[in-house]
Amino acid sequence: MNKVMTYRAHYRAIAVLGLPLIGGHLAQFAIGLTDTIMLGWYGVEALAAVTLASSYYFVLFLFGGGFGLAVMPMVATAAAENDETSIRRSTRMGLWLSLLYATLIIPLLWWSYPILIATDQDPQIAETASEYLRVAGWGLFPALIVMVLKSYLAALERTQIVLWITVAAAVVNGLTNYALIFGNWGAPEMGVMGAAIASVVTQTVSLIAVIIYAVRVLPEHNLFQRFWRPDWEMLFSVVRLGVPIGLTLLAEVSLFAMSAFMMGWIGKVPLAAHGIALNLASATFMVHLGLSNAATIRAGNALGRKDRAHLEKGAIAVTGMSLIVSVLTIILFLTCAEPLISIFVEPDDPQRPQILAIGTGLLAMAALFQLVDGAQVIALGLLRGLQDAKVPMAMAALSYWAIGIPASYYFGFVQGMDGIGIWLGLVLGLACAAVLLMARFWLRSVRIIATPAP
User: Fold this and answer.
1) Residue 2's pLDDT is what?
2) Residue among 87, 321, 401 at smallest CA distance from 218
3) How many CB atoms lie within 10 A of CB 232?
4) Where does this one sit in the cell (predicted)?
5) How far apart are the first and last CA of the chain?
6) Residue 348: exposure state from Cβ atoms within 10 A (0-12, 13-18, ≥19)
7) Which helix (H) or strand (E) holds 131?
C-alpha cells in the first residue's frame, strides 16, 4: 500500500527536487543572458542579430530536445518500478536519436541566411545572424546530448549535480564571452563571432562534465558500453513520446520566434527591446520550468507506483507554487521595469531612451502572461510525467499557431499596436494553451491511474 503524503510533505518534496532544477534552468538562462548583456554593451546591431539568430536556433534545438525530455518520464517511471534495464535502454536510445537529429539539422544552421531573408529581415542583421549560426550551430551536438543526460540524472533525483554542472558552464560562458566579444586578456576582439565560439565551448564543457559524472557515479547503468548496438523497440518508444513533445516545444518556441521576426519588421530598436524584455520574462519562466520538471518526475513516479492520490495532491501543490511565483513576478515587472531594462543598455547609448520606452511597455505585457505561461508549462509537465503527449501536442499547435501567431499579427499590424499588439497575441495563445492543457490533465489524463490509493 502506498503511503499517503500530506500537502506539506508534497511542498517539501517538490522544493527539494525542484529547487536545484530551478537553479539549473536559471544558470542555463544566465548563459543566454550573458550573451544578451555583453552584446548589448557591444552594440544594438549585434544584440538584434543574436536575438534573431537565437530565436531561429532554439526553434530547431527545442524540437530535438523532445527526445531528451521524453527520457525524463520514462526513466522516472522505470526507477519507480526498479527496472534498471529500462533506465539504460531509454537513455541510450535518447542519445541515439539526439545525435541523429543534430546531424540532419546542421545544414539548416549553416545555410540560414536565405531562410532569414525570406522572413523579410534587414539584410545586414540577417547576414550577421547567419555568421553567428554557422559557428554556434555546432554546439547543437553537445547541447542535445547534455539535455538527455541531464534528464536521466534528474529523473533519478540527482538534481544537485545537474545544478552544479550548469553553474560551471555559465561561469565558463561568461569568461569566454568577456574575452572573445571585447578582446580582453589578450584575446582578439570578435564581437558576435566571439559569442558564437563561447557558446560552443560552453556546451562542450558541459558535455564532458556530465559524461564523467554519469560514468563514474552510476556505472551500473553502463550507458556507453556497446553504445553502437541498436535497440529498435526502445528507440521507437522514445520516438513515440519524444516527437510529440518536440512538436509541442516547437509550437511554443515558434510562437516566440515569430514574435521576434515580427518585431524585426518594425525595426532593429524594437527588436533589441523585444530581446531584452523576453530575456527578463524568460528568467522568471525558468522557475516555472523547474517546477514543471519536478512535476514530470513525480508524476512519472506516481504512474510507476499506480498511486493516483499522490498524483492529484502533488499536482495541486506544484500548481499552487507556480501561482505564487507568478504573482510575485507580476509585481516585479509592473514596479521595476525601467531599472531591469537599464541593465542591458549602455548609459550613453543614443538609442537608450527608445529601448527603455518600448521595453517598459513590453514588460507590462509580460506581466500579463505570467499566470497563463506558468499554468501551461505546469500542465505540460504533469502530462509528460504520465507519458500523455499526442493530444497535448495538438492543443499546443492550436493555441500557439492558430490563435497566438495570427493574433500577434492582427493586433501588431492590422490594429497598429506594434510591439504591444504582438505581445498581446502571445498572451492569448498562452492563455488558450493553459486552459486546454489543464482541462486535459484533470478531466482525462489523471484517470490513467484508475483507482485512487486508499
Assistant:
1) 54
2) 87
3) 8
4) Cell inner membrane
5) 8
6) exposed
7) helix 123-136
Which DSSP string corresponds to 414-452?
Answer: IS--HHHHHHHHHHHHHHHHHHHHHHHHHHTGGGGS-S-
How long is the chain? 454
Q: Give CA–CA dist 314/153, Å, rounded.
A: 21
State the pLDDT at residue 240: 94
User: Residue 3: phi, psi to the nearest 5?
Assistant: -75, 130
CA 164 distance to own-chain centroid = 18
* Domain chopping of the chain, boundaries: 21-230, 241-453
**Pairwise CA distance, residues 286 & 229, whole Å:** 36
pLDDT at 116 (0 to 100): 86
Place of cell 520550468: 289
Rounded CA-CA distance 13/5 in Å is 10
Run of H or E residues at 386: none
Residue 85 corresponds to which amino acid?
T
Burial class (CB in 10 A: 0-12, 13-18, 19+), 435: middle
What pLDDT, on a 0 to 100 scale, did the predictor assign at position 452?
Answer: 47
If the chain, 454 residues long, is cut into consecutive pieces of 10 residues, what is the mean pLDDT of each piece?
A: 76 90 82 76 80 81 88 92 90 94 92 85 85 89 92 90 89 90 86 88 92 90 83 93 90 82 85 84 88 93 88 94 93 89 79 86 86 92 93 94 94 92 93 95 84 48
Please report, for residues 42, 132, 202, 237, the alpha-carbon distance to residue 128 in angstroms, rounded to integers and kept in the order given: 14, 6, 21, 40
CA-nearest of 274, 251, 279 to 263 is: 274
Nearest partner of 148 among 81, 106, 100, judged by Cα? 100
DSSP string, 58-88: HHHHHHHHHHHHHHHHHHHHHHHTT-HHHHH
Helix (H) or strand (E) holding 227: none
> Is 192 in contact with 50 (CB distance < 8 Å)?
yes
Q: How far apart are CA 281 and CA 101, in angstroms?
A: 29
Block residue for cell numbers 493555441: 399
Integer Cα distance of 371 and 137 in angstroms: 33
